[in-house]
Amino acid sequence: MSKTIQIASPGQFADLLKSSRIVVTDFYADWCGPCKQIAPIYEQLSAQLSRPNQITFVKVNTDTQKEIASQYAITSLPTFMLFEQGKQVDKIQGADPRKLQAVVKKLVAAAEGPSSGLGSSSSGSGSGSSWRVGDLPKGYGDVTDQVDVKGLELLNADSDFGTVRTLFEGSKPTGLQNGKAGEKTKDWVESDTDEQLMLFMPFQSTLKVHTLQITSLPPTSEDDEAPMRPKTLQFYTNRPHILGFEEADDIPATQAIELSEKDWDSTGTATVSLRFVKFQNVSSLVLFVVDGEGSGEKVRVDRIRIIGETGEKRELGKLEKIGDEQGE
């Protein structure tokens, strides 16, 4: 469900500017083509970064809210305005997704600094770096925000737990927040009939994928029915759709990796370094969790983060298969 608030009156907007530390505002119109083009990216930022009373994403229809549009001198669409503690701190005119993402994340990162008081209770930014340990590989950044969340697919997931979008939230998993894995919120994914999971991740831009970070926080008890951490992983690049389990057995993986106990750090995160030369021009990625590290029947995954570089933006809603026949 979208976390973006549709502004219905000047009073509502004024109240939000007072009650939320950061307010990101999208001034748009229904007839505006560029507004429609960038809307999915704005919604994705909202889904990743919104936090009650701290970071709020809103939309203002300039045709129905002319008083607000006039107050802030909106002369072109789309226009994005960023407010901190009620004061305008930035303005972006036009449908420039990279600039929008950069400005919003810079503001959120500044708000999550040591003096902000937001870090430990945050539901996360796109990087989610506040709870993970270690530095990103030199020269690369968190590109998880390039995942096209509307195209995500996950096979063999137990519906009693989180959805596929849960995997890409920046928020700190409840297993870390509370020191235990059995929370009522169940903000993780578990496999259903056996230990296998198949995840399809389409991207908004072609990516150079350097590293994948997988967080898994199974219970620490000796319960034989407790879910396991992933062990054997297979990656497939540039598939036009998700693979079936039998189909994956017949297709050579771009890379296969086997994790061991030493690969998991104190946050329950394994950093998977990919053969970078094979992941240079990636429009989609399929992750196949083949099995778990024990003798259980289910596998658990809490979060996934993608590290690399963004490339050429692809047309929204269109996934083109790009040849992955690249040299070692």
Detailed description of the structure:
Residues 132-326 form the PITH domain. This protein is of the alpha+beta class and 328 residues long. It has two domains: 5-111, Glutaredoxin, CATH 3.40.30.10; 141-313, Jelly Rolls, CATH 2.60.120. Helix content is 18%, strand content 29%. The protein has helices at residues 10-19, 33-49, 66-71, 97-111, 174-177, 245-250, and strands at 5-6, 22-28, 55-61, 79-84, 87-93, 141-142, 153-155, 189-190, 197-215, 230-237, 255-258, 269-273, 282-292, 300-301, 303-313. The strands form three sheets. Strands 6, 7, 9, 10, 11, 12, 13 and 15 form an eight-stranded antiparallel sheet that branches. It has a five-stranded mixed sheet with strand order 1-3-2-4-5. Strands 8-14 form a two-stranded antiparallel sheet. The N and C termini lie far apart (42 Å).
